[in-house]
TrEMBL record:
Pfam families: Peptidase_M16, Peptidase_M16_C. Residues 563-599 are annotated as: Disordered. Residues 568-580 have a biased composition (Basic and acidic residues). This is Peptidase M16 middle/third domain-containing protein. SUPFAM superfamilies: LuxS/MPP-like metallohydrolase (SSF63411). Keywords: Hydrolase, Metal-binding, Metalloprotease, Protease, Signal, Zinc. PANTHER family: INSULIN-DEGRADING ENZYME-RELATED, NARDILYSIN. Residues 581-599 have a biased composition (Acidic residues). Residues 242-426 form the Peptidase M16 C-terminal domain. Residues 1-18 form the signal peptide. Residues 82-185 form the Peptidase M16 N-terminal domain. Belongs to the peptidase M16 family.
Length: 1227
């Protein structure tokens, strides 16, 4: 009996080590059925899981249809299973918790060598090829990487090979044989890898970082990649390299620090069985991973030793400037708010952003701000600039400008609203743009679970959503981004001696801004008597300049104005007291200035000579050292010597320059000069509170405190409790009684603490209630505007608003004159544009001046609006309508035919049809009753939003904000209260009306004959628009290649008078298409035929293009060679043409990968789709009689259906439109 038990135990052990082969009866002639029976007990017992998490517990994206499961095996191995029928291939990812920080000091790179040695063979497959060759033999891919704290195998195979791949992988991890012959053959292969990678600028860039980090062991894999380094390691350590590899494997490779992810189309049950069968017997050494924070204390930041240096690197295809700020590792820096906060502010796409300023200067093509966190070891914040050729000589200016922008951000209080906005953006991105490919999901799981230490339920969401961070954490993060922590990388394609030392080539940003400052065109120079008007005209000048220039360019102009104010006041006082003494002082000052200028010139010459001598001496020393030791470089400075050990083939590939103290002083001087003169920029124009409101007009030179309705209410109550004056006792009691009136929740007060005079700017919008209830594609108005008896259609509503504004302006003409007499402003305009921002129709009021004048103006205005029927007679009403009609006709005379065609084309896709109204306006049908009815509706039920900008105490602000609304509400006869929360300003989730690409398969084409005579001298015009796709990375990639090949077509064929454009820019929506525009011909029939001929010739030419030419064009685009534009500039062009949306960043990020994937067959199929797409033909001709229009229709190409009314296309259902949810970043 004892012998039987021993035999049974021996059988179980054998089956445990080769369970699968025994199971199939392939060893020791064991019968298949018997072996399967014996295998079940041990596999079942060893394969029991400690814990499991089912799919319902995982945090998934809304577009993720995968099924998930987490298992903890008996040997403590963590396993994630992902099943999705849409996966085209399977991904197996195995992470082992051994990283480069575990390399011995005398054997750097050992962990990497162990990882690759595992693949050389196993005892089970000793006669077969290694694991990598096996994966390639089944048309798979394998990727091996070693990070700071883990080693990762990523295997891509066809789903039919999933069982075989798991079997081979588990065997490789459990039973590696480390064949000596193959091992040393592998080490010799490393020496040849350098040569193939030397032309890769990114690889070289990483090599430089590793080389200059002498005191750190993280990036020392290079040292094991040459025969010389291996030989040195053997001689110095006097050890056997293979034996060291084996010892490391047997001591460190434990199942307890392994995480396996399997993503496949197979079911969870099948994947679970395969994993249990193959990985339950991986050895467990009971090793645990070090905590991330403990690891961070061990690892030294590799860049800290080279802070304060500029490193010039040989680049392959693009010039780039990188400002890097090394940061000690912090948990919150990984996809969390401190880094995201700064990235969000720096990458803002507003007119005044840093990137747009530098782009307009012509110095950069693109800017990126990214945070790199190296596997819980260290972090760095990088600002990357793609430089133009002009920008190479403007590096100092770029760095100074960047630090000025950083100073503005750091000096502003951290905004909790922006933090919430960032979190919403990332949440939306995760919900709708989460990458559900098996490779990305596997990487996300490894990063989240194995590296970040998240729970299994959090793994899919941890990398996309920011964690809550305190304001103190963000402030601490911003403090680390300083010039004392700066490391500069300059990647140059033209790598020669003349390009070194370029940090000091230009004079910096300050002299250039001062040169560009318009001295004599400031509209108002305040003095002692008109300081009260500073907010009125001073802000007017700011507003006009804001639209033209960026905030950085604007600041010196405002500062110069302030300097002029002080100088003029001083001069006036001196002239009144001692005019003669002033003249003498001026003469003396001029003489002193001349002497100082001469001294400065001499000093500059001396400094330049000294700098040149120093550079020559340094160059000579460097050349001598390189000649003496060609395998190393050394550049010395007064402070320290930096020695560089590197492969001999890296010579002359990079140069390191010590950043001078003078350079740091110049940067700090630029920051302090602007910061000292200008007022701190306390508020951002793209703030969520300001999006799509008139508040965008505030001055960038002022410092504001924001009072939201709740804050203002509390401030008013605090002020009243502290104010004990009996003079305003009744007023204060009235305020307390009405403080909770709900309409005031839509107002915001901006207290400008810099202006001492009681001046302000008042904004108010009165909008139609519940604008979303309007049925835009119908000619009738729906609820809740059922009270409008006389106005039946949206067209009448828009025209009535225009006339109402003209009537209010007429009735308030005396108020306008009074405000102008005291150099104030009073403006009333209509709000008709509601396509992008969600702002409904209504009127907008803007008043600037003294607080008292504003109070009286709005009090008088409320009375006049309520008494329009008494102020305006019927005759005057007809006169007002006629003046508007004449103004529109005058504007149309100066419109180009191209603009007219665009207006018609835009109206086809526009919801409110406001574009076409500017051409077809006829005010004759608008009655006075409609105007009075609309005015009453706005007064009684209109949605109100407004703001006050200026220096006022809370009670003053409240009184002014309250004056107008209380007047029109309480005296209009109806006391209907408005909801305290307005949907136009609060709702940030919008929908975009997009042409369904499926309808492009319909062959119905449309034409519209523009019969409006503009009475101008322009010739005929025709435009053809062809929409063919959604806006996504694939369509943009196609368009890029399409546009490039079109240049070949344009060169071969003469296209006189023709212009071909690529959109989006017709309707600023999500369409991609092309438009062909012709002008200069006299006959529309010829024009129509020619535009179609060009279209078909263009598509046919591109369809028939040879595959070689297509591949050549695509490769040139990817390499940015011989192009009229860089790929980055094309992306920037798209960003400007399309409103900022979250989806745009995903699109741009995927353009280059989509270009790589775009094959010739897809390209041709897309061209065929364009040929069958719907086309919109618009023809215009000057002064054509109606009889000739009828004759002209005979010449319209066959297959085109006439559009008599633009609503015919959208409302009849012929063209299908869908609504896509979008997220406006700045809304």
């Amino acid at each position: 009996m004892r012998l039987l038990r021993i035999f049974w135990l021996f059988t179980q052990i054998v089956l445990a080590f080769s369970a699968k082969k025994f199971k199939n009866g392939k060893k020791l002639d064991v019968i298949s059925r018997f072996s399967s029976y014996l295998a079940k007990p041990i596999i079942t017992k060893l394969g029991r899981t400690v814990s499991e998490v089912e799919s319902s517990s995982f945090m998934k994206s809304k577009i993720d249809g995968s099924t998930y499961k987490f298992m903890k095996l008996q040997n403590q191995m963590s396993v994630f299973l992902v099943s999705n029928n849409d996966f085209e291939y399977s991904i197996i990812t195995l992470s082992i918790g051994v990283g480069s920080v575990m390399d011995p000091e005398d054997l750097p790179g050992l962990v990497s060598l162990v990882q690759e040695s595992l693949c050389l063979g196993t005892y089970r497959f000793v006669d077969n090829s290694n694991f990598c060759n096996f994966v390639i033999s089944i048309n798979g891919e394998i990727d091996m990487k070693v990070y700071e704290r883990n080693s990762v195998f990523t295997i891509k195979v066809g789903s039919q090979y999933i069982s075989t791949a798991l079997d081979r992988l588990s065997d490789m991890i459990r039973n590696p044989s480390f064949p000596e012959k193959l091992f040393f053959a592998k080490t010799k292969e490393y020496s040849g890898t350098f040569e193939s990678l030397l032309n890769d600028s990114e690889f070289l860039f990483q090599c430089v970082i590793r080389d200059i980090s002498l005191d750190d062991n993280i990036f020392k894999r290079l040292n094991v990649l040459t025969d010389k380094s291996i030989k040195e390691a053997r001689e110095i350590s006097e050890i056997n390299l293979l034996e060291q590899v084996k010892n490391f494997y047997y001591q460190q490779y434990s199942s307890s620090i392994m995480t396996l992810v399997v993503a496949s189309k197979h079911t969870i049950a099948k994947l679970s069985n395969e994993v249990v069968l193959n990985f339950s017997l991986v050895k467990n050494l009971n090793i645990s991973n070090p905590l991330p924070f403990d690891l961070a204390k061990i690892v030294r930041h590799p860049h800290l030793g080279v802070v304060g240096n500029a490193i010039y690197v040989k680049a392959h295809s693009i010039n780039e400037l990188i400002l890097e700020f090394p940061i000690d590792y912090q948990e919150v820096l990984w996809d969390s708010s401190p880094s995201s906060y700064l990235e969000y502010l720096l990458k803002d796409n507003s007119e005044k952003s840093l990137s747009n300023f530098l782009t307009k200067k012509g110095w950069i093509l693109k800017m990126e701000a990214v945070t790199n966190s190296h596997r819980y070891s260290f972090s760095s914040f990088e600002i990357r600039f793609l430089l133009t050729f002009k920008g190479i000589d403007k590096i100092k200016s770029i760095i100074q400008t960047t630090f000025i922008a950083l100073e503005h951000i750091k000096s502003s209080p951290v905004n909790q609203e922006i933090l919430a906005e960032i979190k919403q953006i990332l949440k939306y991105k995760f919900d709708y743009y989460f990458d559900v490919s098996p490779r990305q999901i596997s990487k996300q799981i490894i990063d989240s679970f194995d590296i970040k230490g998240c729970s299994p339920e959090e793994v899919l969401i941890a990398g996309n959503l920011i964690r809550n961070s305190s304001l103190e954490e963000i402030s601490a993060f911003l403090n680390k981004i300083s010039i004392e922590n700066l490391l500069v990388f300059v990647k140059l394609t033209d790598f020669h001696k003349d390009n070194f030392g370029i940090l000091n080539k230009d004079q910096g940003i300050i002299p250039e801004l001062n040169v560009n400052t318009p001295i004599n065109n400031n509209p108002i120079i305040p003095n002692r008597n008109n300081n009260a008007l500073l907010a009125s005209k001073g802000q007017d000048s700011d507003d006009s300049q804001i639209e033209k220039n960026s905030y950085l360019k604007q600041v010196p102009e405002l500062d110069f104005m302030q300097d002029q104010e002080q100088e003029q006041e001083q001069k006036q006082e001196q002239e009144q007291k001692q005019e003669q003494e002033q003249e003498q002082e001026q003469e003396q000052e001029q003489e002193q200035e001349q002497e100082q200028e001469q001294e400065q010139e001499q000093e500059q010459v001396q400094v330049q000579v000294q700098v040149q001598v120093q550079k020559q001496e340094q160059a000579q020393e460097q050349e001598k050292r390189i000649e003496a030791n060609p395998s190393s470089k050394m550049i010395s400075s007064k402070d320290k010597d930096i020695e560089f050990r590197t492969c001999p083939m890296f010579n002359n590939k990079y140069i390191v320059e010590k950043i001078s103290a003078e350079f740091f002083t110049q940067v700090n001087s630029a920051v302090s000069q602007i910061h000292a003169k200008s007022i701190e920029f306390k508020i951002r124009k793209r703030n969520k509170l300001l999006g799509n409101t008139p508040l965008l007009n505030f001055s960038s030179s002022a410092s504001y405190r924001i009072y939201t309705p709740t804050i203002l209410k509390n401030a008013v109550l605090d002020y009243l409790s502290a104010e004990s004056s009996s003079k305003f006792k009744s007023l204060h009691k009235k305020i307390k009684d009405n403080i909770n009136y709900p309409v005031y929740s839509s107002f915001i007060f901006f207290n400008n603490i810099n202006h001492q005079a009681p001046s302000a700017t008042f904004f108010l919008r009165i909008m139609l209630p519940e604008p979303k209830k309007l049925e835009n594609n119908k000619n009738v108005l729906n609820r809740p505007i059922i009270d409008l008896v006389h106005t039946k259609s949206i067209k009448e509503l828009i025209l009535s608003l225009e006339v109402l504004v003209a009537c209010i302006n007429y009735s308030a003409r005396d108020i306008i004159k009074q405000m102008q007499s005291i150099e104030g402003a009073f403006l009333i305009s209509s709000i008709l544009k509601s396509e992008l921002g969600g702002v409904p129709f209504g009127i907008e009021i803007k008043i600037k001046g003294f607080l008292g004048s504003i109070f009286l103006a709005i009090k008088s205005l409320s009375k006049k609006i309520l008494r329009l029927n008494r102020i305006i007679s019927q005759e005057k009403f007809e006169e007002i309508k006629q003046s508007i009609q004449n103004k529109v006709k005058s504007e149309n005379i100066h419109r180009s035919s191209s603009e007219v065609s665009r207006l018609f084309l835009k109206s086809i896709f526009e919801e409110q049809k406001t574009s076409i109204l500017s051409l077809e306006i006829d005010y004759s049908s608008i009655t006075f009753e409609q105007i009075l009815e609309l005015s009453s509706l706005l007064c009684n039920n209109g949605s109100l939003e407004g703001a006050l900008l200026g220096n006022a105490n809370p009670v003053q602000a409240y009184t002014i904000l309250n004056q107008f609304t209380s007047g029109i509400r309480n005296k209009s006869g109806k006391n209907n209260q408005v909801s305290s929360k307005l949907s136009p300003i609060k709702n940030s989730i919008q929908t975009w009306k997009v042409l369904d690409p499926l309808c492009c398969r319909i062959t119905t084409n449309y034409y519209y004959l523009n019969k409006i005579s503009l009475n101008n001298s322009l010739n005929s015009n025709s435009l053809l628009y062809v929409p063919f796709s959604y806006f996504n990375s694939q369509s943009v990639a196609f368009q890029v290649v399409f546009e490039y090949i079109f240049t070949i077509f344009n060169e071969k064929l003469s296209l006189s008078g023709a212009e071909i454009e690529f959109f989006p820019n017709v309707n600023e929506a999500l369409h991609i298409g092309l438009a062909i525009k012709l002008s200069g011909l006299d006959n529309v029939s010829v024009l129509s035929e020619k535009v179609l001929d060009i279209f078909y010739n263009l598509i046919t030419f591109i369809k028939n293009i040879q595959k070689e030419i297509f591949d050549q064009a695509k490769n040139k685009i990817l390499l940015n060679e011989d192009l009229g534009f860089e790929l980055g500039s094309y992306e920037s062009r798209l960003l400007f043409q399309i409103t900022s949306r979250i989806s745009i960043f995903n699109v741009l990020r995927e353009i280059k990968p989509s270009l790589k994937k775009l094959d010739f067959e897809t390209f041709i199929n897309t061209c065929n789709l364009i040929l069958s797409s719907q086309k919109f033909l618009i023809a215009t001709q000057q002064d054509l009689e109606s009889s000739k229009w009828e004759e002209l229709q005979n010449y319209i190409p066959s297959g085109f259906v006439s559009i008599e009314d633009l609503d015919q296309v959208t409302s009849s259902g012929v063209c299908k439109f869908i609504r896509i949810p979008i997220r406006l970043i700045d809304a």
